[in-house]
UniProtKB/TrEMBL annotation:
<dbReference type="Pfam" id="PF08263">
    <property type="entry name" value="LRRNT_2"/>
</dbReference>
<feature type="signal peptide">
    <location>
        <begin position="1"/>
        <end position="20"/>
    </location>
</feature>
<keyword id="KW-1003">Cell membrane</keyword>
<keyword id="KW-0472">Membrane</keyword>
<protein>
    <recommendedName>
        <fullName>Leucine-rich repeat-containing N-terminal plant-type domain-containing protein</fullName>
    </recommendedName>
</protein>
<dbReference type="InterPro" id="IPR013210">
    <property type="entry name" value="LRR_N_plant-typ"/>
</dbReference>
<dbReference type="InterPro" id="IPR032675">
    <property type="entry name" value="LRR_dom_sf"/>
</dbReference>
<dbReference type="Pfam" id="PF13855">
    <property type="entry name" value="LRR_8"/>
</dbReference>
<dbReference type="InterPro" id="IPR001611">
    <property type="entry name" value="Leu-rich_rpt"/>
</dbReference>
<keyword id="KW-0677">Repeat</keyword>
<keyword id="KW-0732">Signal</keyword>
<feature type="domain" description="Leucine-rich repeat-containing N-terminal plant-type">
    <location>
        <begin position="21"/>
        <end position="55"/>
    </location>
</feature>
<dbReference type="GO" id="GO:0005886">
    <property type="term" value="C:plasma membrane"/>
</dbReference>
<keyword id="KW-0433">Leucine-rich repeat</keyword>
Length: 185
């Protein structure tokens, strides 16, 4: 009887692990919040081994980013530029520690740029330009230039205040920081 129970238990665990695709679930929860007038999301298959391979730049999408995206532990590129996405950047995005490129430019995002983005030390490209972000650019994000891998930081064409002072220190990689010219005084 015990052997029969163990066989059934192992079988149930095997089925549960096959049916459970947390990354696919996170993406489907986001898909349900998006408006997709061009039908680019119709081909999404949450059962794929790697469901994180969709090209969503200039796709005509509208809607928010969802906190569940922060569970995509292996995501390296989040490129949703040139859409009509709205709302704020969920702080859970800071959980994407393997992220190399975060391209949210040319959308309608607003609110503050989360300081938690400064945790993304693998980030090489952070493009947040042409949105409606307000407040100041967090120092922790700027420090990604100096202490992380960040090579391009573009926050121009937003409603940000303050300036980023240029310093040349030998030993650091050349980084291009693009900010609003009207904010420099």
């Amino acid at each position: 009887m015990l052997i029969r129970f163990l066989v059934c238990f192992v079988f149930a665990v095997a089925i549960a692990s096959v049916d459970c695709n947390s990354e696919g679930d996170a993406l489907i929860s986001w898909k349900l919040k998006l408006v997709d007038p061009n039908g680019v999301l119709q081909s999404w298959d949450p059962t794929l081994v790697n469901p994180c391979t969709w090209d969503l730049g200039n796709a005509g999408l509208s809607g928010p980013l969802v906190p569940q995206l922060g569970t995509l532990a292996n995501l390296q590129y989040l490129e949703v530029f040139g859409n009509n996405l709205t709302g704020t950047i969920p702080t859970a995005i800071a959980n994407l520690t393997k992220l190399v490129s975060l391209d949210l430019y040319q959308n309608q995002f607003n609110g503050a740029i989360p300081e938690s983005l400064g945790n993304l030390v693998s980030l090489s490209f952070l493009r947040l330009n042409s949105n409606k972000f307000s407040g100041i650019l967090p120092v922790k994000v700027i420090q990604l230039v100096r202490y992380g891998n960040l090579r391009i930081l573009n926050v121009s064409e937003n409603q940000l205040a303050g300036t980023v002072h240029r310093k040349t220190t030998s030993g650091f990689a050349v980084t291009k920081i693009i900010q609003d010219p009207r904010a420099q005084k």
